[in-house]
Write a structure and sequence with these properties.
alpha+beta, Nucleotidyltransferase, domain 5
Length: 283
């Protein structure tokens, strides 16, 4: 016997005028839209239900609902704003042609959009700057648009020197971001909520990509990435557990319309070095 059945037996059925709770999962998704506030959503709620909850109780019920969700879902990321990027701590072995010798272990790059948790992943040769930049460009092409902010976890390829207020962004990474019209904002040290979305994305990648492909042996990055693409498509199409829709549905309706357009050309990769106190571009 659940609580509702027990209450019905003790106190009888609720009166016909009993208030129906708003769908806070849908409200949470709508709050990600640009300019959308809880006050506006409450006004719309009262228009459809004039006898509904007052504003204070509406906000309190929403606060309680948020407390029941996990840390990642609890955050209110704005539509199209942040893309969290990181590498999985576990890689993918790439074998020689004989399928017995491991040639090298490929890194797994993961990019996650904040509002929808829409995910992109690919295997790369290493975490070096060239691959780091290429993975971003491939992620933007996958999204079909560009986020406003890039949030890396202070990886050396992206952040030359971590700092709480003014981190030193790698010049090539900064130039790439400028080319695509976005800004790099590294996650702050000792602020786990800053990178919770990326860590959740990495966890999903480990469960739904690495774990599923663990018995397969790949002999090239192209072969590995073809298999990864299938896993990513299935993951993005899976329904949320505590929210309506799926990652791809929410990305298409919420994130994508608020993102920037892709430039006509990809970034022309260049390495910058410091000479006499200033950065110079090397051919």
């Amino acid at each position: 016997m659940d609580d509702e059945e027990l209450q019905a037996r003790l106190f009888g059925p609720p009166p016909a005028t009993a208030r129906v709770k708003p769908d806070f999962a849908k409200i949470h998704l709508q709050l990600k839209g640009k300019g959308v506030t809880l006050t506006l959503l409450w006004l719309e709620y009262r228009e459809s239900d004039p006898d509904g909850y007052g504003y204070s109780q509406f906000c309190e019920l929403y606060r309680r609902w948020r407390a029941t969700t996990d840390l990642v879902m609890r955050q209110s990321h704005k539509a199209g704003e942040k893309c969290f990027v990181d590498y999985s701590g576990t890689g993918i072995p790439i074998y020689a042609e004989d399928l017995t010798t491991v040639d090298y272990v490929a890194e797994l790059f993961v990019a996650v959009m904040g509002a929808s948790s829409y995910l992109y992943a690919e295997a790369t040769r290493s975490q070096e700057l060239f691959w780091w930049i290429s993975s971003h460009e491939n992620a933007f092409a996958f999204f079909g648009a560009v986020p406003r902010l890039l949030v890396p976890d202070n990886l050396r390829s992206g952040v030359s020197q971590a700092h709480r207020y003014e981190p030193d962004i790698n010049p090539t990474y900064a130039e790439m971001a400028t080319h695509y019209g976005c800004v790099v904002m590294p996650a702050r040290a000792y602020r786990p909520r800053d990178k919770a979305k990326a860590e959740a994305g990495v966890l999903f990648a480990q469960r739904w990509i690495l774990a599923r492909l663990r018995r397969r042996r790949f002999t090239s990055l192209e072969e590995a990435n073809a298999a990864i693409a299938v896993c990513v498509a299935e993951l993005n199409a899976r329904p949320y557990k505590k929210m309506p829709g799926s990652r791809v549905e929410v990305f298409t309706s919420v994130d994508l319309p608020a993102m920037g357009e892709l430039p006509k050309y990809r970034y022309d990769f260049a390495i910058w070095k410091t000479a006499v106190g200033r950065h110079i571009q090397c051919p």
